[in-house]
Design brief:
This protein is mostly helical and 597 residues long. The protein is built from 34 helices and no strands.
C-alpha cells in the first residue's frame, strides 16, 4: 500500500509574514484577526510535536488576548505543554513541557476563569527545584540587552493574587514580597503591598532598602520610597523639598534671595541637586512624583498645599484614580462641599463600578453632615472593593460622628483585620474606647498603633491626651512634645490643638510660665480661638494667686468674650478678676461717721 504523499513544506517567508501579522494585530488590539492568523500559522508550521513552540505560544497569547481562556488551555494541554493534557509526559520533551512561559500563561487563563486552586496547582508550590528551573530560563532570556520582568517574579505575583482571592492574606503578602525581591521592576507587587497596607512603615523601608537595584536604577528606589508611608522619612522629605524647589524655582524668591545666598548655602544646594539622579529630576512633573508631594503635604498637615497639588494633578490627568483618595480626604478637611459634589458626579458618571466613585459620594454627604447617607455610600464602596481601606475608615467615621461606637468599632476592626500594616483603624478603635471612658483598653490600642507606626504624631498626641485624662501630666507633656517634634516645622494651624494640650498639661503641673509660653504659641497659630484666650487668662490668674497679673487676665478674658460672648466660664472668671483687681488697686476706705442734725 502506497504511503500518502508528503505535504509540501510551507515557504519560510510565508511563516515569517504570518508571525509579523499576528504580532502587529496584537499590538493594534485586533484580537479576532490575531486569533485567525495565529491558528493558520500553527497549522502551517508543522504537525504534532514538530510544531514550533514559539508559534504555539503566540497562538495562545492571541487566544488569551481575545478572552478565549478555555480554548487557550485546551491548546496547551493538547500539545502537552502544560499538565492536564492527553499527551503522555514521556512523549513531550521536558524542557518544552516545563517552560515557565507556558505555565504562567496557563495559570493566567485559570485565574481569568477564577479557578484559583487550579491556578496555584499550575504555578507549582515555588520549591527550590522549580525556582532553579525558572531562573535558568530567565538567564537564557537575559542574554539579550532588553530588560524583561523575570518569570520567577511574574509567577510569584500571580501566586500572591491567587492567595489573596482565596483570602489567605499572610501567604499573599509572602509571595508579593517574593515577587518584588525576584525583580524590583515588578511594580504590581509593590502596588498590592502598599494599597493593601500589608507592611508596617518599618517593614516597607526595610523591603525597599533591600531590593537589588542596578546602580543606574537607584532613582526607582527613591520613587518606591516616595510611594510608601511618609512618616519620619528625612531623606524622602529633603528629596521632595528639592524637587519642589526645582519645580518652582521662583516661588519664594527668589532672584533677590539668591543674590544674598551665602557661598556655603549655594554649595550645599548644588550638592543636594547633584545627589538627585538625572532620571528623578526628569520626573519632577510626573504624576506619581506629584502625588507623593501631595501625600507628603497631607501627612504634615499642610492641607491647602496638598489640595493645590491634587488640583494640579487632576487638571493634567482628571481620572488618575490613585490620586483621588488623598484629594477627597483633603477636600473634606477643607470643607469644600461644592468641589466634592462636582467631583463625585463626574466619577459616578465615568466609573460607576469603581469603589472610589461611591467613596467620593460618601465624602460629600459626610462633609455636609448627612451621616446616614454617607454610611450608605461608604458601605457601597466597600461592597465593590473590600480592599479599599479609605471606605472602611470613612464607614467607621460616619458611625462615630453619630456616637454609634459599637458599629464604628466593628468597621474599624474589619479594617484592622484586612490591613494589618495600617495603624489608623487601630488608632480609631482606641479613640472610641477613650470616648467611652475605657481608658485601659484605649491605651492598649494606642500602644499597638504606635508599634505599627511609631512616627505618626497623631498617635503620640492621643497618648498624651490619655495620660492627661489619667492625671499623669508629666507623661502627657512628654507624649505631646514628641508629637510636636514629629510634625514638620513651621507648624500649621492644624496642630494648634496639640500645642494647647501641652499648655494645659503644664498648667496642671503648676508650671505657669511654660503654660503661658505654649498658649501664646497656640495663639500665633490660631489667634481667633476664644478658648485659648480664656485658658491664657485663667493661667495668668493662677500665676498671680488671684492677687497679681490681673490686668493680663482681664485683657485675655475680654478678647475671649469678644470672640465668643456666651463663654460662661470667661464671664465668671472676668468678674472674679475685676473684683480682685479692685481689691488690690483701690485705696483704703476711711470710714467717716455721719450724724444727722
Amino acid at each position: 500500500m502506497d504511503a500518502p504523499p508528503l505535504a509540501p513544506r510551507v515557504p519560510r517567508a510565508t511563516l515569517e509574514k504570518l508571525r509579523s501579522v499576528v504580532r502587529d494585530c496584537l499590538e493594534k488590539h485586533l484580537d479576532d484577526s490575531a486569533v485567525f492568523f495565529a491558528d493558520k500559522l500553527v497549522s502551517m508550521s508543522g504537525d504534532g510535536e514538530a510544531k514550533d513552540p514559539d508559534d504555539l505560544f503566540l497562538y495562545c497569547q492571541a487566544l488569551f488576548a481575545g478572552k478565549h481562556h478555555r480554548r487557550a488551555l485546551t491548546v496547551m494541554r493538547g500539545a502537552g505543554l502544560v499538565d492536564g493534557g492527553d499527551v503522555p509526559a514521556r512523549d513531550v520533551p521536558a524542557v518544552r513541557k516545563n517552560a515557565p512561559r507556558f505555565r504562567l500563561l496557563a495559570a493566567r487563563c485559570l485565574a481569568a476563569t477564577r479557578e484559583w486552586d487550579e491556578c496555584l496547582a499550575a504555578l507549582g508550590d515555588g520549591e527550590s527545584s522549580e525556582i532553579s528551573e525558572i531562573s535558568a530560563a530567565d538567564d537564557e532570556e537575559s542574554v539579550t540587552k532588553t530588560k524583561k520582568i523575570s518569570h520567577a517574579s511574574a509567577m510569584s505575583l500571580l501566586r500572591a493574587q491567587a492567595h489573596e482571592a482565596l483570602e489567605n492574606r499572610p501567604l499573599a503578602r509572602r509571595w508579593y514580597v517574593a515577587a518584588l525581591e525576584a525583580d524590583p521592576f515588578c511594580y504590581a507587587a509593590l502596588e498590592a503591598l502598599l494599597s493593601n497596607h500589608a507592611l508596617s512603615a518599618e517593614e516597607e523601608r526595610s523591603l525597599i532598602g533591600s531590593l537589588a537595584f542596578d546602580p543606574e536604577d537607584e532613582w526607582l528606589r527613591f520613587l518606591y520610597t516616595s510611594m510608601g508611608k511618609k512618616y519620619d522619612e528625612p531623606e524622602l522629605e529633603s528629596g521632595l523639598e528639592m524637587l519642589e524647589e526645582i519645580r518652582n524655582p521662583n516661588q519664594s524668591g527668589d532672584e533677590s534671595a539668591a543674590r544674598f545666598e551665602s557661598s556655603d548655602e549655594a554649595r550645599a544646594r548644588r550638592e543636594r541637586l547633584a545627589s538627585l539622579p538625572a532620571e528623578l529630576l526628569a520626573l519632577r512633573f510626573n504624576g506619581e512624583v506629584a502625588l507623593a508631594r501631595a501625600e507628603w503635604y497631607y501627612h504634615r498637615g499642610d492641607f491647602q498645599k496638598c489640595h493645590d497639588a491634587c488640583v494640579e494633578i487632576c487638571e493634567r490627568d482628571p481620572f488618575q484614580l490613585k490620586a483621588l483618595p488623598v484629594y477627597l480626604a483633603v477636600t473634606v478637611e477643607l470643607r469644600k462641599k461644592n468641589e466634592l459634589y462636582l467631583r463625585a458626579h463626574e466619577l459616578v458618571e465615568e466609573y460607576p463600578t469603581r469603589a472610589v466613585s461611591w467613596f467620593a459620594v460618601g465624602c460629600y454627604y459626610y462633609c455636609v453632615r448627612r451621616f446616614d447617607a454617607a454610611r450608605r455610600f461608604f458601605s457601597k464602596a466597600t461592597a465593590l472593593d473590600g480592599a479599599f481601606v479609605p471606605a472602611w475608615i470613612g464607614f467607621g467615621h460616619a458611625f462615630a460622628a453619630q456616637d454609634e461606637s459599637d458599629q464604628a468599632m466593628a468597621a474599624y476592626r474589619t479594617a484592622a483585620r484586612l490591613f494589618p500594616g495600617c495603624h489608623l483603624p487601630v488608632l480609631c478603635i482606641g479613640m472610641e474606647y477613650r470616648r467611652a471612658n475605657n481608658l485601659s483598653l484605649a491605651e492598649q490600642f494606642f500602644e499597638k498603633s504606635r508599634g505599627i507606626c511609631p512616627a505618626d504624631p497623631l498617635v503620640h498626641n492621643e497618648l498624651g491626651v490619655l495620660a492627661y485624662r489619667n492625671k499623669d501630666y508629666a507623661k502627657a507633656v512628654e507624649h505631646l512634645l514628641d508629637a510636636i517634634a514629629l510634625v514638620p516645622h513651621p507648624l500649621t494651624d492644624e496642630w494648634e490643638a496639640s500645642v494647647v494640650n501641652v499648655a494645659h498639661a503644664y498648667r496642671k503641673m503648676n508650671d505657669f510660665d511654660s503654660a503661658i509660653e505654649w498658649y501664646e504659641r497656640a495663639l500665633s497659630l490660631a489667634p481667633r480661638c476664644a478658648g485659648t484666650h480664656t485658658a491664657l487668662g485663667f493661667t495668668h490668674q493662677l500665676k498671680g494667686n488671684f492677687q497679681t497679673n490681673m490686668s493680663e487676665a482681664i485683657e485675655c478674658y475680654h478678647r475671649a468674650l469678644s470672640l465668643r460672648p456666651d463663654d460662661t466660664f470667661a464671664q465668671e472668671m472676668l468678674t472674679l478678676a475685676l473684683i480682685d483687681q479692685c481689691a488690690v488697686t483701690m485705696p483704703p476706705y476711711n470710714f467717716v461717721s455721719y450724724e444727722p442734725l
